[in-house]
Write a structure and sequence with these properties.
Layout: H1 2-21, H2 25-48, H3 62-92, H4 96-101, H5 107-113, H6 115-135, H7 145-172, H8 181-194, H9 206-212, H10 216-228, H11 240-244, H12 250-283
Helix pairs in contact: 1-5, 1-6, 2-3, 2-6, 3-6, 3-7, 3-10, 7-10, 7-12, 8-9, 10-12
Length: 290
């Protein structure tokens, strides 16, 4: 059974890749998009020189600081925001009921069509690191590669969980033409304000710092910057939860929180998505043609 699901997932993914590759200008444009975004923040780094902004404990290289923020943004953006888009595409294309007539699980077609976002967004994270290092003076160290891989895994899993929760609302709460609230609240409000992509969250008011404690991005970015920027300190607490639990090493605490969020968000998202599909099957609303 697992073999069947895996083969089906690969076929969906191959289809998405073929569609993506048929528009080769897309690849050129997203390379340019990452390059120009990195240039913008390189220019901003020139402005921040000599400012009173304290980047401790993340070293003093602003380009490295912001490029790692972009890295987390690109690898998590598709997980968090793409699910609701793909569910909508399947619905408006009238194919969801056809997928569910097959002996596949509810999740295989969804994960397969989301591969399009993986092709589009995941490589941008590596390009951001590459352009920052090649052209704009970003410097990175890789002293704990296994820890970095664990952080990468947890940010992918936790944001995917939030994304599937968002996608489940399409059927579960009938958000078919309105702004979907989970994506809006997380991606457009909390993450945009408090994730600290472009500035240390210590410059924010305390309530916003506390709000940022409820998203995985905060902890992933904190650990990556401590470990990958030369001069980063792995012992000094700065995040609200780290200050509440100063006896726990900040990096260890970040990993624990990311693990907890992964264990919480992904099963909840899968449960809600399944309930949404079951609700649509009962009501006959799997596709717009019904």
């Amino acid at each position: 059974m697992l073999h069947r699901e895996w083969d089906s997932f690969l076929m969906f993914s191959k289809r998405e890749f073929i569609i993506w590759w048929s528009y080769k200008m897309n690849a050129i444009m997203w390379v340019l998009d990452v390059l120009f975004t990195t240039i913008v923040f390189f220019m901003l780094s020139l402005v921040t020189k000599g400012s009173d902004i304290n980047f401790f404990p993340y070293g003093n290289n602003y380009v490295s600081f912001v490029v790692l923020g972009l890295f987390v943004h690109f690898i998590s953006y598709t997980n968090l925001g793409d699910c609701i888009t793909r569910v909508g595409r399947i619905y408006w294309g009238g194919t969801m009921d056809l997928y569910l007539l097959s002996p596949l699980s509810y999740f295989t077609p969804l994960m397969g069509v989301m591969f399009r976002g993986v092709i589009d967004d995941y490589p941008r994270s590596l390009l951001a690191l590459l352009f920052g290092w090649l052209f704009f003076g970003a410097v990175f160290v890789f002293v704990k590669p296994l820890v970095l891989l664990v952080i990468l895994l947890f940010i992918l899993v936790s944001t995917l969980g939030i994304g599937v929760i968002s996608g489940s609302s399409f059927y579960l709460f009938n958000f078919k033409q309105q702004t979907e609230p989970v994506k809006f609240i997380f991606q457009d409000v909390i993450i945009a304000l408090t994730a600290g992509y472009y500035y240390p969250i210590t410059v924010l008011p305390q309530p916003l710092q506390i709000l940022g404690s409820f998203i995985p991005h905060t902890y992933a970015i904190d650990t990556l910057r401590r470990l990958m920027i030369p001069g980063g300190d792995t012992t000094v607490p700065v995040l609200p939860l780290q200050l509440v639990l100063p006896q726990i090493n900040p990096v260890a605490l970040d990993i624990m929180v990311l693990a907890a969020m992964s264990v919480f968000f992904l099963p909840l998202g899968l449960f809600m998505y399944k309930k949404g599909i079951e609700k649509a099957r009962r009501e006959g609303t799997l596709t717009r043609w019904q």
